[in-house]
Amino acid sequence: MFSQFKPAIILLALLTILTGVIYPLGVTGIAQVIFPHQANGSLIIQNGQTVGSELIGQTFDNPKYFWGRLSATGTYSYNAFNAENLTGSSGSNYGPLNPALTDMVQARIDALKAADPDNTLPIPGDLVTASASGLDPHISVAAALYQVARVARERGLSEDQVRQLVDEYTEGRTWGFLGEARVNVLLLNLALDGVESR
């Protein structure tokens, strides 16, 4: 029986070194060489300051900014993981008949209407619902266009100027056929700040 322990321990040590040290270091090294921006979190840096990541949404509630999707991570949306506040990536797991989901959607509809009472366009679904991760940085083109009039008015810009920025920051389908066209909210809002400061 003890003769079986020696090969098992050797195999455990070997696989621990191979899969726990060599493989992670190899993958990290290759990623740093081939995809350094993505491997380091796709961070957006302006004037030497990190302002966010292209991959993680941020909460915007000022009417002069485009608003992203709701976050299912609770009242501490889009923060780095914090065990005390239960933040991080998560969905709500609310079913379509759950009153909490209905209340959440209605609250967002009310906020959108209060911020832009003259807007008669239908509200796109992604402006009132959370993504599965609760951290989605993108909105649909329809969700961006829904907000153009409000953002233009709040910033003193023409709707054409704002719509042009939306077009400029619209990303096509992944590989040309997967998913839908989308707009990265943080990149669009940073571009708006740049236009306003000129």
Describe the structure.
It contains six helices and five strands. It is mainly α and 198 residues long. It has a three-stranded antiparallel sheet. Helix 4 (141-155) runs antiparallel to helix 5 (159-168). The longest helix has 33 residues, at 2-34. It is elongated. It starts with a helix and ends with a helix.
How would the blueprint of this fold be written?
Elements: H1 2-34, H2 36-39, E1 43-46, E2 49-53, H3 99-115, E3 138-140, H4 141-155, H5 159-168, E4 170-171, E5 182-184, H6 185-196
Antiparallel strand pairs: 1-2, 3-5, 4-5
Helix pairs in contact: 4-5
**Spatial shape:** elongated
- Average pLDDT rating: 85
Amino-to-carboxy terminus distance: 78 Å
Tell me the quaternary state.
Answer: single chain
SS content category: mainly alpha
Report the β-strand fraction as a percent range.
5-15%
Helix-strand topology string = HHEEHEHHEEH
Summarize the structure.
With 198 residues, this protein is mainly alpha-helical. The chain is built from 6 helices and 5 strands, in the order ααββαβααββα. The strands form 2 sheets. A 3-stranded antiparallel sheet has the order 3-5-4. The protein has a two-stranded antiparallel ribbon with strand order 1-2.
